[in-house]
Design goal:
about 425 residues; alpha+beta; Pdz3 Domain; 2 domains; three-stranded antiparallel sheet; 9 strands; transmembrane; PDZ domain-containing protein; membrane; PDZ_sf; transmembrane helix
């Protein structure tokens, strides 16, 4: 059994090495998402809080390991799909990406394909309206609906494990508006993993890379707690869907019902996590005493001594601090070394100390929660590939239009000068 499994995995990954284009495209998509986070940090605070390239490399490594483990589980569960199903799911994922990036999940693409395939099969059997080549292929292809449902379940178990292990890494701080209109601190957690899986089909083993990930905004929890809060329901959801897919094997009606249940339950789970996050009491608000830490900058004294999101600095040196100005003034009193008294979220006091060098960030490298004077905040809206392409096209059009206007004005001046020269020549003659 081990030899057969090894043969399948080696054949599949050899094909992936020969034709890696779709996987590389997904890896590029993941890199773009992390770069967006870094740009958002620079726009909001003027510095980057995380290394996008480092987070991307860690994500790629975890995705490769997760893809291999998922492929082993698929082999043990005898999961098989057809080439038509694989290509169709990729096509659905691309369409969903144009609507909202968070929908680029097989929990949406898989059940949607099952429902669409059932409708197309019904239309093919009752009428001859299917003239489009690919629709006819979907209608005529052998179905592996239960395998698709089990695939959704296994991938969500893997997703929950990956989120639990490091879903808080690379969390981006930002200021948002609370339900009461107050500007508060928050964290945007976005993690994506490109998973290079291999699956058995009727024509052999084929690569099937997919992207899994999650995106959430937390205002009431530190990033690590928020990630683990989201991980546990995902693992439970994945186990439930996998078992449902196993039980539905060979029963078409039950398989369709399970597919719809999988889609609806995933959306309800997402809404529940969002509701729990947004209705939690805001954590990153100005305390009655001291300065609360929202985040620390890379390679800064604050990060070196272990200041964490949610910690409250009450003293720097021998001075009580209640604002950014107080911290700056206290550091000026002893610019070579900073002694910090901080209180964590459990109410425990810690005494920290760190040397300060000339090239260290201003104010220890701490991003503080917004005070009552803060007015600027981030507007959160669903991100889609279509929106990004439209904004890119509009910027290009604006730049092109500006260049075009300048070019037309320059040509007009040259044309006018040419006319004047011709008139002068005529007059002179």
């Amino acid at each position: 059994m081990v030899v057969a499994m090894w043969q399948q995995l080696s054949d599949g990954y050899m094909r992936l090495l020969i034709e890696p284009w779709i996987y590389l495209l997904m890896v590029g998509f993941v890199w773009v998402q992390y770069r967006r986070g870094e740009i958002m940090e620079r726009t909001s605070f003027g510095v980057k809080v995380n290394f996008a390239d480092l987070e991307w490399m860690i994500s790629v490594l975890y995705g490769v390991v997760g893809g291999i483990l998922a492929s082993i589980v698929f082999w043990l569960l005898h999961v098989q799909v057809g080439l038509v199903e694989i290509v169709s799911i990729w096509m659905i994922i691309v369409v969903l990406m144009l609507i909202d990036v968070r929908l680029t999940c097989i929990a949406y693409a898989g059940p949607l394909f099952i429902v669409a395939a059932v409708i197309l099969q019904w239309l093919a059997s009752t009428s001859g309206v299917l003239q489009v080549l690919w629709l006819r292929k979907v209608a005529d292809a052998p179905t592996h609906f239960a395998s698709l449902i089990m695939m959704v379940g296994v991938l969500h178990v893997m997703e929950g494990i990956l989120i639990f292990m490091g879903g808080w890494r690379g969390a981006s701080p930002l200021f948002v508006e609370s339900r009461r209109g107050q500007v508060i601190g928050a964290f945007s957690l976005q993690k994506f993993w490109a998973m290079p899986m291999v699956l058995g089909t009727a024509v052999g083993v084929v690569p099937f890379p997919v992207v899994i990930g999650f995106s959430t905004l937390t205002v009431g929890f530190i990033p690590k707690h928020a990630a683990r809060l989201a991980a546990s329901p995902l693992v439970l959801y994945g186990v439930l869907v996998t078992v449902a897919g196993l039980l539905a094997r060979g029963h078409m009606v039950w398989t369709i019902l399970v597919a719809v249940f999988t889609l609806v339950l995933h959306e309800l789970l997402y809404k529940w996590v969002q509701h729990k996050e947004m209705n939690a009491a805001p954590l990153f608000v100005r305390p009655a005493r001291g300065v609360r830490v929202l985040a620390t900058i890379l390679r800064s004294p604050a990060r070196a001594v272990g200041l964490q999101p949610g910690d409250t600095m009450v003293k720097v040196g021998s001075m009580n601090v209640n604002s950014a100005y107080d911290i700056h003034f206290a550091i000026d009193q002893n610019p070579a070394y900073a002694k910090i008294e901080a209180v964590d979220l459990r109410g425990e006091t810690r005494f920290l100390g760190t040397p300060i060098f000339e090239d260290d960030p201003h104010q220890l490298g701490v991003i503080m929660v917004p005070d009552e004077h803060a007015r600027e905040y981030a507007e959160i809206y669903p991100f889609s590939a279509a929106r990004w392409l439209f904004e890119w096209w509009r910027r290009r059009k604006t730049i092109g239009g500006t260049h075009g206007q300048r070019r037309r004005k320059r040509q007009s001046r040259q044309s006018q000068q040419h006319v004047v020269d011709k008139k002068s020549t005529v007059i002179d003659s």
